[in-house]
Amino acid sequence: MRKDIQDRISEIKEADILVGIPSYNNSKTIGHVVKAVHAGFAKYFPDRKCVLVNSDGGSKDGTIDVVQNTAVEDFQSILLQHRVSQVFKLSTPYHGIPGKGSAFRTIFQIAEALNVKACAVVDSDLRSITPEWIELLIKPVIESEYDYVAPLYHRHKYDGTITNSIIYPITRALYGRQVRQPIGGDFGFSGRLARFYLTKDVWETDVARYGIDIWMTTTAIANDFKICQSFLGAKIHDPKDPGADLSAMLYQVVGATFDLMETYSSMWKTVKGSEPVQSLGFQYAVGLEPVLVNLDRMIDKFRLGVKELMSIWKSFLPAEITVFLERAQGLKKEEFRITDEIWAEIIYRFALAVHKKMMNKEHLLKSLTPLYIGRTASFVSEAWESDAQEVEAKIENLCRMFEDKKRLISENWD
User: Fold this and answer.
1) Binned average pLDDT, 10 residues per bin, the chain of 414 residues
2) Is there a single domain that holds both residue 198 and residue 301?
3) What are phi and psi of 118, to 5 degrees?
4) For the chain, what is the domain count?
5) Do residues 231 and 357 both lie within one domain?
6) In this structure, are 85 and 228 located in the same domain?
7) Structure pTM?
8) How many helices (DSSP H) and strands (DSSP E) are in the chain?
9) Domain limits at 321?
């Protein structure tokens, strides 16, 4: 750590609560996030010693200045009239591999140095964060001794499809806990768990770049920390770049999930079925921003993938799957479906192919992209007339299929 940060830590000595905000060129949105965190401290933890840490990746747009100059000036505006304790703020560039994981490592280190009891991390581009998020992520740790608080959001039925179709079903089937948003981005955790994270030798790996969310969730579950999830309402943040490479995103998220399977194989092989985790917070309906989809374009991308990548898939997918995919290529839009059973087997077969190093990992996982797009097109068609509750029931059925077919990977792993 830089000397000025070390000096600041020496000045603060110890703290009860720390909230970290990783950032990179988020000057337009981070002010709102800082105000919400500050108001959350004042409203829900007025007698606690609180620290806000901005771990920045070298922003050039004045992000750190916004953090330093933003505060809640009028506490009556958040219905507070009594005096509140001071909030300490630290902004520091992080070191190491560029990425969210390196930013989190700095936050964990400061939490350890201040011996904090409870921590949270929130994204810097959130537009829907409220002071209540701080209560919902921190109080379960302080009052109920939970070590890890995952977020629970309402999302549009076509939003978060990587989570809904791959990460949630496989994480639930592997580790036996129903953590609905394992890569949600906003988490609460105990100081004890922050210290445990720092003992892990992952900070020069892809975890430091982009795998931190699934790594935090899986590490907490696999090492038997006490876990819950808190309902935060809607998650609305800056729209992602529509030109971003979907295959790179899939490679990052799915690759990190598969890497963790290697780390914890002895643990997940013995797990059967899954159980719910405690859900906290009052659940209510929220207005959601629409997600536009182009079904024809998605199916065209699937067809092109079948044409160009079938030779790769045939090296590790069984014949009944490749025959199914070739037939699906010729179906009309109204008939196009990739069933839960086929999809679960495809994901498990990809996991086995990566584990057995059948070809270059990045090349292999990027070939999943047209299959994922095809599965998403199938889901969009099936859920076209479905409400939120019906969509959740479809996702539940998919998760059970992953649990039922888990023996495919358990029996073939070695």
Assistant:
1) 89 96 93 94 92 93 92 63 73 87 95 98 93 97 98 88 96 98 96 98 91 97 98 80 69 96 96 97 81 89 96 97 95 92 98 97 96 95 91 97 97 94
2) no
3) -140, 140
4) 2
5) no
6) yes
7) 0.94
8) 19, 10
9) 295-382
